[in-house]
Structure formats: structure tokens, C-alpha cells
UniProtKB/TrEMBL annotation:
Gene3D superfamilies: membrane protein fhac: a member of the omp85/tpsb transporter family (2.40.160.50)
Compartment(s): Membrane
Protein name stated in the entry: BamA/TamA family outer membrane protein
Species assigned in the record: Enterovibrio norvegicus
Alphabetical UniProt keywords: Membrane, Signal
Amino acid sequence: MNSHQCLLAASLIAAFLCLSASASNDETVSSSNQAITADANSLDIEIVPFAFSTEAMGFSAGMAGLWKGAGQPQASMFAAGLGTSKHTWMTFLAANNYALSADSRWLFSGQFYEADYKQFNYFLGDATSNTSVKSDSIKADSRDARHHLSMRYILPMGAAISQPIRAALFPQRQVDGHTPWESGVSSIELRPFYESRELAGGAANISSDFSKAEEVWGLETRFRWDNRDNANNPTKGSVSELIVTADPGASDRASWWKWEASQSWFHALGDWDELAKQQVVALNVYTADTPSWNNTMTVNGERVYERPPEFAGARLGGLYRLRSFQTGRFVGRSVLSYSLEYRVIPEWQPLGSVPVFNWYDVPWWQWVAFVDAGRVADSYDLAELHSDMKWSAGGAIRFQVEGVVVRSEMAWGSEEGLFRVMINQPF
């Protein structure tokens, strides 16, 4: 887990598991189209401290706060921060799902993240290639930032012809067809973004085929068609997403652009006698390319390639793809990745009588077996992308608490085994 994800995991899980129970998001969203401007009867604000320890960060302590119905019933604000015994610190602020009016099709959000890391492992230059090994990493101090605004437009088709906000945010819906104009929720999202990473010491001088820029500015455009029957625990349907990211460059850095495509499918296998009430096979295919990779332009009198730095490139490893590898372990011009999961909800559900869990609404828990395969390459060549693929395999236990899916999983691969805790399904 990278540091940003470590902060989110610790603080979000603390916020949702350690606080007193409150109304679920379903109740809020169900009336959001009729009550965007309604005044809340009382503030729903929760604040909780948290602490954990990892080898990379040492002892860490912080605070997280969540405000549900932050000015509008469907909106929320979240803030978290932490400091560590190794002098690393992080801060995160998010404001989500604000609307202009009850019948608006626009949702506005923003996320702002700053951190200062001490002696973390980074993969740079040749250390990100498909032939690299774990020992190619380098320890360095780094100052990171990641900010974006989001303007999401809900298209008037499928399930969102009427009540677009409810259609977009309510976790359950019918799957009525196999095209965006028949079923599901389709949206276009514009994300102006800023991202930076300033490495200290010798790490900043490592030879690399990527851009040496320490910051990127640009626009991310997303088209998403969500045709699942349930956002938290889908049993049928699909999710399709196309992302185009462009940095126009500046006087001190080259322009570049990349595209990403992700497709997920879900298929129910039915129950399993008295052992399982639900079995689902879930498959995700992800691919990306950087078409500007071999183009050149002049920056400060020098011809340079139109490529992103490692932290903004097409990557594998982390919470969602090749889960036994660190975030950003592999980076290249192109990426191809497959993930297959077998998800089971057992008939046996003891969490209602387990201390702490019995304070909350925990309608189900889920056992998962998964396998990932993928690789990066310096050209978008399907034959090359399917050769010498890296792999991960593992198991997970996931459960829904007060409308939020918490997942804990263990993944093994050729380099190491990693245990992670985070929220939301990986796809």
C-alpha cells in the first residue's frame, strides 16, 4: 500500500467502523432529488482518532472527520491527517457530490492531498520495467501533492432519464438492458488536476526514459457506463470506463497524453446448497497507452520526448491491479491487466454477535479468491503485452458496514506477499 492509500485506509475505516452508527447513505440519496436545498435538522459530523504501525512509516497517529449531508443531503465532506514517528506527515480533504439544484444533472466534487515522506521505497527509471526486480528500488525522501476538481454530468439515458442524482448515487438499480440508452447510468466527468513529486538526494538524478518533471497539470476526461445491479455487491451487469488524460505542457516540461480503458463483468452462479447464499464471478480487463510516447518537442532548447513522469504514467501494482506488488511497481508506455475474482457470501453470518460489529448494520460478509495478471511495455503490442506477464493470487474477506464495503486481503506473487485493508470493491 502506498502512503496515500495507507492514510485513506486507516482514516476511512476508522471513520466508518469506530464511530457511532448513523443513517445509511441509501436513506439520504433516496430523497436527494426532492430535497437538495433542505436544511438538515442536525449536523451529522463524526470525528475519530486512529493509530497504526507499519515498517515504512513507524508508529502513526492521526485524526479523521466525516460530515454527512454537508450542506446538501447527498453531499459529504471528509478530512484526515496524520504524523509518524519517522517524521512523515499527510493531509487529505475531500468534498463530494454537490449539486446546483434538485433537478440538476451536474455533480461537483474535489480532493486535495499533501504529504511529506521520509525514506520510502521508489521505483524509478529502469526499475519500473517488466524485467526489473524488487531490489532495484531506491529509498528517498519525497514531497507529494495530488489535487483535482470533478465536474460530473449525468447523461439523460438509461436509468437516469429522470431523477439523475438519485440514479447516480443510489447503490441499487435494475439491469434492464445491454446498452447505455436502455439501462444503467452513463456520465461524463471532467477533472482538472495537479500532481507533483519532489524527490530529495540522489533519487532526483536517476537516469530515466520518463519525463524528469516534478509536477504535471492537466485535464482528465472520463466516460463511465455503470450497468451493475448493486454498486457494493454486484451480481450481474457490467461497468465500462474510458479515461483520457492530457497535460498541455509548459515552458519547463513537455506535453503528453494517455488513455485508459477498463471493462468489468459480473455473473451470478446462484446459491450453494446450505453453504453459500450467493456466488459471483467477477472479471476486469484494464489497458492503457501513451500515444505521445515517441513524439518530441523542444523544452529549454533541448529535444525531449512527450512522456509523463513515473508517478503519472501507465502503472501496475497496488490496491486494484497486480495486488502482490507495491503501488507503481511497474510503469511503461502501455499496460494490460486482467483480474478474476470468485466472490461468495456464506450462509453462516456470525458478525451480528461479534463485539464491535454488533453495534452496526453488517448485512453480509464475503469470502473472495482472486488472481491478477498483467505487464507493462514500451509499445502497445498485444503479443508483447501477453508475454512474460506478472501475476498475483490471494484471498480476501470483505463486509458491508453501514453501507460501506471494507476489504481486507492477502496477495502473493513472485516478489513478496502483501496484506492490505481498504474500502470499496477493487472493481
